[in-house]
Amino acid sequence: MTPRPDSIETFILIMPMGIKPEAAGDTEATMQFHFSGKAQGSCYFRIENGGIKAEMGEADNPHLTIETPFEVWMDIMTGKADGQQMFMEGKYKVTGDLSLLLQMGKLFGK
């Protein structure tokens, strides 16, 4: 079970723990998150060399940008909500490389 972050700072500490190095392989990508709602702010993750680095703030030229209420993304991350369903319902917005979004289930988690 994935712990549920209660802040963006906690999110950037927990998210890297879930990366699967074998699945990340030679992926090189930057994922930007813009959160609204309970926790407001931005952070990003840089995937490279089978690992991940997390930072607060804005990335230069991210491959994927996700704009979402913090609670919605935490529900998706912890399995309380289905990410694809939430996307189809317009609960969050995505710009950039949608294939990276589709790979997230393979790159992170169980």
Describe the protein in words.
The N and C termini lie close together (9 Å). With 110 residues, this protein is an alpha+beta fold. The chain has a single domain, classed as Nonspecific Lipid-transfer Protein, Chain A. A hairpin with a 4-residue loop joins strand 1 and strand 2. It has a five-stranded mixed sheet.
Blueprint of the fold:
Layout: H1 8-14, H2 21-24, E1 29-36, E2 41-48, E3 51-56, E4 64-69, H3 70-77, H4 83-88, E5 93-96, H5 98-107
Parallel strand pairs: 1-4
Antiparallel strand pairs: 1-2, 2-3, 4-5
Quick structural summary:
The chain is of the alpha+beta class and 110 residues long.
CATH architecture: 2-Layer Sandwich
Shape assignment: globular
Structure class: alpha+beta
Spans of at least 5 consecutive residues with low confidence: none
| CATH homologous superfamily caption | SCP2 sterol-binding domain
The CATH topology is given as Nonspecific Lipid-transfer Protein, Chain A
Tally of contiguous helical segments: 5
Average pLDDT reading: 92
Q: Return the CATH class.
A: Alpha Beta
Number of strands: 5
How would you characterize the largest beta sheet? 5 strands, mixed
Instruction: Give the H and E element order.
Output: HHEEEEHHEH
Structure keywords:
110 residues; alpha+beta; Nonspecific Lipid-transfer Protein, Chain A; 5-stranded mixed beta sheet; 5 helices; 5 strands; globular
